[in-house]
Write a structure and sequence with these properties.
The protein is an alpha/beta fold. About 50% of the residues lie in helices and about 20% in strands. The strands form two sheets. Strands 1, 2, 3, 4, 7, 8, 9 and 10 form an eight-stranded mixed sheet that branches. Strands 5-6 form a two-stranded parallel ribbon. The relative contact order is 0.16.
Length: about 350
């Protein structure tokens, strides 16, 4: 009997050696289970596990179960969470300059966004590293639109609604102040209930998020003019990253960039599908008259200016605004924007 128990213990320890990863990376995200974000993260985790002979694996906490993005940042600083997928709100908590890419009415389409993010990727990677984090890949939530219970076609229409504002987000605060909107700060988890009780009657988010969070069931109109393009980042703490052997670090970064590029493609596709779904369910897209677009864009400039010295430098803002204008005028080199 004693020998039999010894054999069982040896087998148990042997099996556990095959099933338990040597490096377990705790990863948190607001993305819900079943979303493209989680699908891609699982594919990323599986490939990393395979390429590291099972020694590196992500433990994924979806749907905000580790708290909102600010809470996740705090947990990462304490070492309770090692890695996370952030929108600009969370990424901006770590590197405020990240938010310059999301300032209102800066970018008009995905080509402009691709150009600017490629131009800024190396700079952002260095900034994150300086603050104790490794950038595994840039992601994209998608173009953000305003949705409301009544049509919005002008600045005056916008002033007449009770607009949700992401609580403790300096960029949102500056944007809605420049737009003279009546903004009500709330946690993202309180938005649906607040729409149901009419505490707010307007929101802003990407089409995919609007569908995934069920917000679209409480609004009827969508401004067909994007407020911004919301970006994101997959980060791991430098402390956790440096525990990995050098070859595993390389795998994590290279595969992260590949999978997040795929996620951007899937996200754009899902956003287009989400707009179609909302239209099928009665959502009306409200076109903004050309004469009113200028006042929105002027408010965007005002918002960007108000954040100089708070989130980013004037030099950085002017660099990006100049690059956008050069891109639009056809002067930028589309193939090698980082070599300009």
């Amino acid at each position: 009997m004693k020998n039999f128990l010894t054999i069982l213990l040896i087998i148990a320890f042997t099996v556990s050696g095959f099933t338990e990863s040597k490096y377990r990376i705790k990863f948190a995200t607001q993305a819900p289970e079943g979303s493209a974000w989680i699908k891609v993260m699982k594919e990323y985790s599986d490939e990393v596990e395979q390429l590291t002979n099972g020694e590196v694996k992500f433990k994924i906490y979806p749907g905000g179960i580790q708290g909102d993005e600010n809470a996740v940042v705090r947990k990462m600083r304490l070492g309770q969470i090692h890695s996370a997928g952030f929108t600009g709100v969370g990424a901006g908590e770590i590197v405020p300059e990240f938010r310059v890419l999301e300032t209102p009415f800066l970018l008009r389409d995905y080509e402009e966004s691709d150009f600017i993010t490629e131009m800024m990727s190396e700079t952002l990677s260095k900034k994150f590293a300086e603050n104790g984090y490794i950038l595994l890949g840039l992601t994209e939530v998608g173009f953000v639109y305003v949705y409301a219970k009544k049509p919005i076609q002008s600045m005056s229409d916008l002033r007449g609604v009770k607009m949700w504002m992401w609580e403790a987000d300096p960029l949102a605060e500056a944007s809605f102040q420049a737009l003279s909107a009546n903004a009500i700060p709330l946690s993202i988890t309180d938005v649906l209930t607040s729409l149901q009780t009419n505490l707010i009657d307007a929101i802003y988010t990407s089409p995919l998020a609007c569908v995934s969070l069920q917000w679209y069931t409480r609004v009827d109109y969508m401004m067909d003019f994007p407020l911004t393009n919301a970006l994101g980042a997959i980060l791991i703490t430098k402390k956790e990253f440096e525990k990995l052997p050098t070859d595993y670090q390389k795998i994590l970064v290279e595969k992260g960039q590949q999978h997040m590029a795929n996620l951007v493609h899937l996200s754009r596709q899902a956003n287009e599908e989400s707009i179609d779904l909302m239209k099928q369910n009665g959502m009306q897209l409200i076109e903004i008259p050309q004469q009113n677009i200028k006042e929105f864009e002027e408010a965007g400039i005002k918002a960007r200016e108000s954040l100089v010295g708070k989130l980013y430098s004037r030099e950085l803002l002017e660099k990006i605004e100049t690059a956008v204008q050069e891109f639009r005028s056809g002067k930028a080199n589309l193939l090698t924007p980082t070599n300009q």
